[in-house]
Design brief:
The chain is an alpha+beta fold. The protein has helices at about 1-35, 50-60, 85-95; strands spanning about 70-75, 105-115, 125-130, 135-140, 150. About 15% of the residues are buried.
Length: about 160
């Protein structure tokens, strides 16, 4: 009866908290599995000065792309991550990236067309965010109705 209603009303507010907790658990699991805390220092990341280096970095993650970037963008990361940036950073944290240290700094975003996404011939892009030529974030993006946005981890094949 009545208790159930109150519980569901409360539950929806807790959803956001749940997401944060799950992200925390994923992080804890990563620490357990790798035996170390993921390092936000971009020094761990390779320096990608040229387009060739960016393309081969993506290739090392399993992605084949058209070598010419679709778009190159310089932009200032907000001083505080809010809204879509915050949601985007949660995606980044799951793959060991974190934009927090780069708040208020200028980043470069390179967008490439992905040519080898499993079961999708076209419409998939990869975004690579660099700070001083080192990768600090990235995502695989498919715009459109049945689109998605996910990490740079190459998806497991489903066959």
């Amino acid at each position: 009866g009545m208790d159930m209603l109150i519980w569901t009303a409360r539950f929806s507010k807790k959803k956001a908290v749940c997401t944060v907790i799950i992200a925390g658990l994923v992080m804890a699991l990563l620490i357990v599995l790798t035996g170390r805390i993921p390092d936000p220092e971009p020094a761990q990341q390779p320096e990608l000065t040229t387009n060739e280096e960016r393309v081969s970095y993506l290739d090392s993650l399993g992605w084949q792309v058209d070598p010419e970037p679709v778009e190159t963008l310089q932009f200032l990361l907000p001083v505080q991550l809010e809204g879509t940036y915050l949601a985007y950073n949660e995606l980044q944290l799951t793959q060991g990236f974190d934009l927090t240290p780069y708040c208020g700094k200028q980043l470069s975003r390179y967008t490439y067309t992905v040519t080898n996404y499993p079961n999708r011939q076209d419409g998939v892009q990869v975004n690579l965010y660099l700070y001083e030529n080192r990768p600090v974030a990235g995502d695989i993006l498919c715009p459109g109705e049945d689109g998605f946005q996910e990490t740079l981890f190459f998806p497991e094949s489903e066959n």
